[in-house]
């Protein structure tokens, strides 16, 4: 771990720099697969599934039998855990529903704003060693609450052409309408253009490797929206003397095990905490099954000592962490003052894992300093707000003159005419 | 105008197709200017302002003296009109403020969501014949209400190095913090990277030509967000026999005068309305100062007759218009059933111009069918929602087991450990 004491502000950007990823090499491959899926549909999907996932599938839509049999493969304990998580996530996201906003801005000029669901959404869940069924909870639950009609899910099959049962169980539990055994670039292309089997969607959500990330970026050129730009996961912890070093170390390591490129930062005002967290990290690291991955991430991690909490807060706001844990006597100072963070975890008994799985908040959050301008996934991510207005004779008389003047000043005579005609008809 | 009667549903996509724009040629230019602004800052800004706007400026930040003198150049009438619009837009956007959403998902597990302002935003206002000061109202008012600290504005100077006084007046009235005489690609690049004079921003808003559109797209590769993807403006009107043909024609023309590529569509269940609107368009068109532009747009416009309102609604939802005017006895059917539209204008006395300028709703809206998944600009566009959570000893005991089980099932041992350590400490 790199220890940095009282860095000068002019050096903060260098210290807080995230590793950059080059994507230029990948773009050609992504363009090629998109072009092929667009023109050849299912045939291209089958070809790339065979090529990348090593399995030739005649039918890549998951059947109801597969879902029923998946349910039997999962322990009752895990099912209860998933259901508890579902309950909490549902409570928190249902509370985000907003009423219609209605204002009569002038007598006879009624304006309102309503949220309506995005009709068709696509969720992407990566395959690999860790079956991320928790991400299905985070995406399908708010999609359902928002009222999305079509909620499809793509995830790569294993070499036997199967999907992890926890993924099938969770998807079915949370109201996913169709599940496809398709992964990677071809999955994103399939949801972007639609194929004979895969419906075209309006917005694509979910994590993935750099191929999926570049594919999602490309999808935005074809009238599809995406949840947010992706990057490696990050955690920044602020801890003062009231923090338990073993807890802090366990949180840093839980972030580090995500990948060698995970970002892990401790900011503290206490030399003692800095030293004891460092020791704890070393000792806990030894026992982890994903030790190799975590070790690489920890090598790039930083322990930063600053002179006071104000400096700490400025530095944290400049970094804009995806996850921000604050364990401090003066936690209110940080909670009130944080301008840029995806999700904030407060106190010794609020590990990041809680938000990752079961507290109720969403774990799809902005990385790579995007917390400066992006929200994490929430109910609104699955809706769009539309405005409505209804003006009566009195209303147009009140605001008509202003519209005429402004339209004329902008050189838009036909805009003015549309009002003038109406005002004249009311004079008659 | 193209008249289409009772088209088969399988032909709707062709009929509703927007003209596609090719952007490949522009990309090289945009890349080049971005690279130069990134490395050379103000020097590059000055160079391109001289090249594209034909004026060499030593200082491109607008001074307080210029703002004061601009105020004197505008008529009292226009000022009052702008102030009325400001009042209505403020009322409607202030009403969009949401309270903190707080839920105790389990006893001892408190989760809340809060919106916090995007600290630095940049507004772009195009130059040219029509000074779009109304767009400043639509962007700067909600930026201010949201609490954005830095609200900068870039707009190209004319050949004398000046900015239209209505733009300066409106920007100052609405709390823009700094105004720069910089336009086009170099303005977007300046706000993306920051220069000695122009601050770097986190999100860029506003319309522009295709160069600006491509530049905004490129900006998103450098950690900047944009309001939404842009395209030519659109209007779809549904009118039944209760509509006044002259009003409908004036609305279609007000859209048509925006540009030769504007999209104008009438959908109706009445042959009589179709015919009389067509006649009215032809007669009103003759008198327009922007007749040449409007004529081109009208040539591509469509008058579509359908057999009933249900077919009409399906077709409109498939098109997803930016602006949707509905003048119908059964307006409720459309207002309730519209799934995809930027803003909806209801009844004979609600011209699109009202929303463009002064009713209170925002006029920055999704075009090109993006109403399927994007909101128009609203208060939330200038904020991001952050989540917070605080779990106490009791709370972690309640949800800890579920987290452990799920983390283990996902193969993430360190995530589990972060909970296990805490649970163990509570057993002691």
From TrEMBL, chains A, B:
Its cofactor is Zn(2+). Pathway: Amino-acid biosynthesis; L-histidine biosynthesis; L-histidine from 5-phospho-alpha-D-ribose 1-diphosphate: step 9/9. It holds the Pfam family Histidinol_dh. The active site is at residues 322-323. PROSITE patterns: HISOL_DEHYDROGENASE. Binds 1 zinc ion per subunit. Catalyzes the sequential NAD-dependent oxidations of L-histidinol to L-histidinaldehyde and then to L-histidine. HAMAP family: HisD (MF_01024). Belongs to the histidinol dehydrogenase family. This is Histidinol dehydrogenase.
């Amino acid at each position: 771990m790199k220890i940095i004491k009282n860095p000068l502000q002019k050096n903060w950007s260098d210290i807080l720099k995230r590793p950059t990823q080059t994507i230029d090499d990948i773009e050609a491959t992504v363009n090629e697969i998109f072009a092929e899926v667009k023109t050849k549909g299912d045939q291209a999907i089958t070809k790339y599934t065979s090529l990348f996932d090593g399995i030739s599938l005649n039918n890549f839509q998951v059947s109801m039998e597969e879902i029923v049999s998946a349910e039997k493969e999962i322990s009752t304990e895990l099912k209860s855990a998933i259901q508890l998580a579902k309950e909490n996530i549902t409570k928190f996201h249902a509370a985000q529903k907003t009423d219609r906003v209605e204002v009569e801005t002038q007598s006879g000029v009624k304006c309102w704003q309503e949220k309506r669901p995005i009709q068709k959404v696509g969720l992407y869940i990566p395959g690999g060693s860790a079956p991320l069924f928790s991400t299905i909870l985070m995406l399908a639950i708010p999609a359902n609450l928002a009222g999305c009609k079509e909620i499809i899910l793509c995830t790569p099959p294993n070499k036997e052409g199967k999907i992890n049962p926890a993924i099938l169980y969770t998807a079915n539990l949370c109201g996913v309408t169709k599940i496809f055994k398709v992964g990677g670039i071809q999955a994103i292309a399939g949801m972007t253009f639609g194929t004979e089997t895969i419906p075209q969607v309006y917005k694509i959500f979910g994590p993935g490797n750099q191929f999926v990330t570049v594919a999602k970026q490309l999808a935005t050129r074809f009238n599809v929206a995406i949840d947010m730009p992706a990057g490696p996961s990050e955690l920044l912890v602020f801890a003062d003397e009231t923090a338990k070093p073993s807890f802090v170390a366990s949180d840093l390591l839980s972030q580090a095990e995500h990948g060698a490129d995970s970002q892990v930062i401790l900011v503290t005002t206490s030399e003692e905490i800095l030293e004891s967290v460092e020791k704890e990290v070393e000792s806990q690291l030894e026992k982890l099954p994903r030790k190799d991955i975590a070790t690489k991430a920890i090598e790039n991690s930083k322990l930063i000592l600053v002179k006071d909490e104000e400096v700490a807060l400025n530095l944290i706001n400049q970094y804009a962490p995806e996850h921000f844990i604050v364990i401090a006597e003066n936690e209110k100072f940080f909670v009130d003052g944080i301008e840029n963070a995806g999700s904030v975890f407060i106190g010794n008994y609020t590990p990041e894992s809680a938000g990752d799985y079961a507290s109720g908040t969403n774990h799809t959050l902005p990385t790579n300093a995007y917390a400066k301008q992006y929200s994490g996934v929430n109910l609104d991510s699955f809706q769009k707000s539309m405005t409505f207005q209804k003006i009566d004779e009195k209303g147009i008389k009140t605001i008509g003159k202003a519209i005429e003047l402004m339209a004329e000043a902008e050189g838009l005579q036909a805009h003015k005419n549309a009002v003038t005609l109406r005002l004249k008809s009311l004079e008659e």
